[in-house]
UniProtKB/TrEMBL annotation:
Keywords: Glycosyltransferase, Transferase. It is found in: Membrane. Residues 14-173 form the Diacylglycerol glucosyltransferase N-terminal domain. GO terms for molecular function: hexosyltransferase activity. It comes from Sulfobacillus benefaciens. This is Galactosyldiacylglycerol synthase. Its main location: membrane. The lineage of its organism: Bacteria, Bacillati, Bacillota, Clostridia, Eubacteriales. GO terms for cellular component: membrane.
Length: 350
């Protein structure tokens, strides 16, 4: 079976899921290739997305919610990306002849559906990396979707997607999160870990200043945001605070973490749940991560700490904390460490 994994570099979660899927598919002796042929066409959307998050986050959130309820906007968006697919991806299809397209971004899902119109035997699967389903993810030609939570099944059902085409596998994460190596932690025993996604987004200085008051070791992960790391390094921090960039051994760090603090990206939420560590959500991208926040709260896998951060930190630090035990128990219930492998197995049934 020939698998083509199509993603776009709008956030790092889509790429993380794509790598986890590639690992699982290769493990079942499938041929796997990555497709980044839409990156150029998405350059405008990518730039507008990050510009809006920086300068007009509330307006971005309003537009995101409006798009979720607008059939007209969805139709225009779909037709545009289907046309892009027809003009840009035909040669890619002819060269590789994939059996299945795994789309970890909705733009890629729509674009490859343009090819499916003329090649109906091609199978297309949408890989959801958030905890809700925006209307722009809806593609009538998609053969299946993968989701994490039961609420997402209802999200897709409201668009008319039959439930038998929805696979409740979970969000694909790297196999290293299932059994991180048992070795000494990289920085400190049981640290509070501050995350901002792979791009290091959010009010880091304000949050880190609060965490520095907790009288506990803190590791602030800036991801690929070297500018943020440099800015934080200009301040004088207690010895208990460590500032780092991208961490390759994130499964190991989360495994040894005492608490995780940060934004509720879908892939991050899945990795934290598998790591069995209490999650305090302090900031979020308007729109999709607001929905992630609400559903993590609904399933009691995290707490909201944007107002009383230190209160939650002190409540969750003790090993015998009832709230700590409750969150970890819910994470055990909902963690799906084998999601990528389960998706790969489903592909064999298409």
């Amino acid at each position: 079976m020939r698998i083509l994994i199509a993603s776009l570099p709008i956030g790092t979660g889509h790429d993380s899921a794509a790598k986890a899927l590639a690992e699982a598919c290769l493990g079942l002796n499938m041929d796997v290739e990555f497709s980044e042929h839409l990156v150029g066409k998405a350059r405008v959307e990518t730039g507008l997305y990050f510009w809006a998050l920086h300068y007009m986050p509330r307006q971005y959130g309003a537009v995101f919610r409006w798009g979720d309820h607008s059939q007209v906007q969805w139709a225009r968006h779909r037709q545009r990306w289907m046309r892009i697919g027809l003009s840009q991806l035909g040669n890619i299809y002819d060269a590789y002849k994939p059996d299945v397209i795994l789309a970890t971004h909705p733009f890629a899902l729509n674009a490859w559906s343009g090819i499916k119109e003329t090649h109906p035997h091609l199978k297309i699967v949408g890989i959801l990396t958030d905890l809700s389903v925006h209307r722009f993810w809806y593609e009538p030609l998609a053969d299946a979707y993968t989701v994490w939570l039961p609420e997402q099944v209802e999200d897709l059902a409201r668009f008319g997607v039959p439930k038998e085409r929805i696979w409740m596998t979970g969000i694909p994460i790297r196999s290293a999160f299932r059994a991180p190596r048992w070795e000494l932690p990289l920085f400190a025993r049981d640290p509070i870990v501050l995350l901002g996604g792979g791009l290091g987004m959010g009010p880091y200085y304000r949050i880190l200043r609060k965490l520095a008051e907790a009288n506990h070791s803190v590791v602030a992960v800036c991801g690929h945001n070297e500018r943020l790391r440099w800015q934080l390094d200009q301040y004088s921090w207690p010895n208990a605070v460590t500032i780092v960039g991208y961490v390759e051994k994130m499964p190991l760090l989360l495994h040894h973490a005492r608490i995780v603090v940060g934004k509720p990206g879908g892939v991050t939420a899945a990795e934290v749940a598998q790591s069995r560590v209490p999650f305090i959500m302090t900031h979020w991208i308007p729109g999709q991560e607001e929905a992630n926040r609400d559903r993590l709260l609904l399933h009691q896998m995290a707490v909201r700490g944007d107002r009383d951060l230190l209160k939650w930190v002190h409540e969750l630090l003790p090993e015998d904390s009832p709230l700590r035990g409750q969150i970890i128990q819910q994470q055990k219930l909902w963690a799906r460490p084998h999601a990528a492998f389960a998706i790969a197995q489903h592909l064999l049934q298409l």
